[in-house]
């Protein structure tokens, strides 16, 4: 039996430390770390230790269905747009054959298809909103259960009401849309679903209800569609339309040149002398020659006349660009003016000198 009195403790510890150096250091670090975490955990406030609860099974199912619904809505938009383009080509052929009555009736189908595409785009935006904020549905349910009231300003009620109202009325078979509607009814309750179905208190967005209106399109809208289709496919409809448009442009140009009824008269001086003309310094005019075509501007900036053409909608198939002063121009005309503005030859030094001499007179 080993007698502890005969063993020298410092020598034994030194021998163990030399043989198991790394193990001793590692155990010391682990021991100090455990002590530090134990002491620090008592100082952390309780609010910081609360973790976000996991999403409920209903929320997980809703998010997975929304991920399937969004691409289905996009594919439906592409299919309807392709059908609308094919119908437009057929309308152009009917106008070319002077079958105006048939073209007017079939144009209403094109308008209905365009409205359906716009409605699908709106529902896609609401589906993306629900997918991004699906986690707030659990917070909403918890607040209602605790009596804290409903969540405001999140847009969840607006998106849910729009989908509940449009799903049974949309003229397109999207199976995932009906599934999302049933899931939203389970989350928001039957009372909210009835209010959304009947649109009580305007709970459904107006842009959704307008797209689902059963009223036929106005004759002015049908006429605008036919004119736009004829212009796009190069059909002379109405007959002599180009001549009438040129005559109207000439009248508009004459009105612009006349201004307020003609040129302004020069004031008559008391002594019969000519009115004094203010002298203009040539340096203040800041006249610079135009760069040749294909070369960038001196300052590297684009032309201020550059206008992005607006996109046509079912309500306005041929939009016009509003200019200062109340005038308006079509996107194609604006682009022509922009192109024509860069085709002029740059003035020479003699031309600039002649302008300066005229200004000094």
TrEMBL record:
<feature type="compositionally biased region" description="Acidic residues">
    <location>
        <begin position="249"/>
        <end position="260"/>
    </location>
</feature>
<comment type="similarity">
    <text>Belongs to the IST1 family.</text>
</comment>
<dbReference type="InterPro" id="IPR005061">
    <property type="entry name" value="Ist1"/>
</dbReference>
<keyword id="KW-0812">Transmembrane</keyword>
<protein>
    <submittedName>
        <fullName>Vacuolar protein sorting-associated protein ist1</fullName>
    </submittedName>
</protein>
<feature type="region of interest" description="Disordered">
    <location>
        <begin position="244"/>
        <end position="361"/>
    </location>
</feature>
<keyword id="KW-0472">Membrane</keyword>
<dbReference type="Pfam" id="PF03398">
    <property type="entry name" value="Ist1"/>
</dbReference>
<feature type="transmembrane region" description="Helical">
    <location>
        <begin position="20"/>
        <end position="41"/>
    </location>
</feature>
<keyword id="KW-1133">Transmembrane helix</keyword>
<dbReference type="InterPro" id="IPR042277">
    <property type="entry name" value="IST1-like"/>
</dbReference>
<feature type="compositionally biased region" description="Basic and acidic residues">
    <location>
        <begin position="351"/>
        <end position="361"/>
    </location>
</feature>
